[in-house]
Design a protein that fits this description.
single chain, mainly alpha, elongated
Amino acid sequence: MRVNQSVDAAVVIKLNFTDMSSRTGLEAEAITRLTDSVQPPGIRAILVQCLAGEVAPSVAISRMLAVEGASTVRAAIDDVTHRAATLSRASDMLVQDRVDELTQVFVEKVAELADVSEAKASRTQPALELRARAAESGDRGESRTSE
C-alpha cells in the first residue's frame, strides 16, 4: 500500500536524476538499498538528501522532526542504520559514514531535547507546588495587611 504516490515518485526522481550524475552509480545504489521502503515517503526523501550529502545530518533531522514525530523519525533512522550494518558492501563506506553521522547527531539531539525538557520541568515544578500548597491552605495569593 502506497501512502503517497506523488511523494514516492519524487523520491525516485531524486534518486535517479537530481545531481546523481556527479555521484557514482555505487553510491546511488547504496542510498537506494538503504532507504528502499522507508516510510513515510517524506522522511525517506529527506534521508535520501542527507545520505547523498546534499544536506547536513542536523538539517535533515530538523526537517524530519518538523514533518513527523520523534518516534517516527527514530524508527526511520534505526531502520537505515540497521540496513547499513547488515546490507552494506565495502564500496558503501561513504554512505555508511553518513548513516553513522546521522545516527550520532540524532542521539545527541534527543539527549539535548531531553535536557531541555528536564530543565523546563524543574523550573515549572516549584511553581506548581506553590500553587498546590496555596490551594490546600485556602490562600489565593492575595497580599496580606496587618492591622
